[in-house]
Amino acid sequence: MTIQPRLTVYFTMLVMALVFVLSFVSYISIQGYSQQEFYSRLEEKARITADLLLKVNEVDSAILKSIDRSEYDLLSHENISIYNASNHEIYTNNDSVYFKTSPGLFAEIRSKKYVRYTEGPHKIVGIYLHSKGTDVVVTAGAIDVKGDMLLRKVRTGLFITLVAAMFVTLL
Fold first, then answer.
1. Positive or negative torsion for Cα 30, 35, 41, 47
2. CB atoms within 10 A of CB 56
3. How far apart are CA 37 and CA 75, in angstroms?
4. What's the predicted TM-score (pTM) here?
5. What is the C-alpha separation between 78 and 159, in angstroms, rounded?
6. pLDDT, tens digit, for every residue of 57-114?
């Protein structure tokens, strides 16, 4: 192989490696941001729901359930549940979606005050709150449909960029 084709191959491999590394770092950064944003939304919804149930005397479970089911900021397959000090459910906004709970999980949430975990496609936060002498554990979970769609689009765009960069470099 003469020097010119060899240099072309080396240069193409170098450019491809650089584009691949940049694409990988970009994807990981976007994935981290998307996940952080989703968990922040879940935490905010859990805290607001618990505050309304525990601190506002005029709000009961039925009113709170209708507020939670409103179309404003509704997440896919969302469930927010509140448990009392003896781990009994005192509120849930969705009767068809349940997350596994165990005494060990409740103990972990109470000791750490905030826990993130997944159950199948659901991303879930567990929060321990103490309000007006009442200790509760709140779990809030949902499927991050928008985040997953964003990551699919980013993967597709980065793959197209990688292939285009290879062809342009070879030319």
1. negative
2. 11
3. 13
4. 0.80
5. 32
6. 655 556 656 665 555 666 788 889 999 989 998 888 876 777 888 889 999 999 999 9
Residue pair 50/126 in contact (Cβ under 8 Å)? The answer is no
Paired with 13 in beta bridges are none
- Spell out the residues 6+ positions from residue 9 whose beta carbon is closer than 8 angstroms to its own: none
Count CA atoms within 13 Å of residue 90 on its CB side. Answer: 16
User: Encoding tokens for residue 10?
Assistant: 């080396």
9, two tokens: 């191959």
CB 92 within 8 A of CB 53: no
According to DSSP H, which parts of the chain are helical?
3-55, 61-68, 103-112, 145-170
CA–CA distance from 141 to each of 21, 34, 122 (Å)? 33, 15, 6
Residue with tokens 């070879």: 170
Residue 63 sits at φ, ψ, to 5 deg, of -65, -45
Contact 143, 123 (CB under 8 A): yes
Q: How many Å apart are CA 124 and CA 3, to the nearest integer? A: 57
Are the C-beta atoms of 148 and 127 separated by less than 8 Å?
Answer: no
